[in-house]
Amino acid sequence: MFVMELSYTAPIEAVEEQMDAHIAWLDGYYAAGVFLASGRKVPRDGGVILAGGVSRAEIEKIASEDPFTVTGVCEYHITEFIATKTSADLSTVRENPVS
Fold first, then answer.
1. Torsion of CA 51, 54, 56, 61, to 10 degrees
2. Rounded distance, CA 84 to CA 54, Å?
3. pLDDT > 60? residue 68
4. C-alpha span between 15 and 18 (Å, rounded)
5. Is 56 exposed, middle or buried (0-12, 13-18, 19+ CB in 10 A)?
6. Cα–Cα distance list, 46 to 16, 22, 82 (Å)
7. I need a labelling partner for 98 at 20 to 30 A (CA). Which of 19, 22, 48, 55 fits?
């Protein structure tokens, strides 16, 4: 599972110009079952996406395709972790650690 943290690198007005394209990009990965949750950080200097079911290389490729990345209004910091305990709603992404 991955925590994808976005940090804006441009003024919020430039981010807003790309918002519709970013939301369409998000919707595609929600439909594919990759994205589990997403939203703005507080204060609004970026966002967070929880993702699963893909490899590190795939998640990096996905981040590179975000219209925010393509237009240079954000940078990603991606953290991979093993979700060994989850709510019942996220039980499908729960993993067993390899010894």
1. -90
2. 17
3. yes
4. 5
5. exposed
6. 12, 13, 24
7. 48
8 A C-beta contact, residue 47 and residue 39: yes
Average pLDDT value for residue range 73-87: 92
pLDDT-based confidence at residue 95 (cuts at 50, 70, 90)? confident
The radius of gyration of the chain's CA atoms, rounded to the nearest angstrom, is 14
The yes-or-no verdict on residue 99 having pLDDT over 70 is: no
pLDDT higher than threshold 90 for residue 85: no
Instruction: At 9, list the tokens.
Output: 């690198």
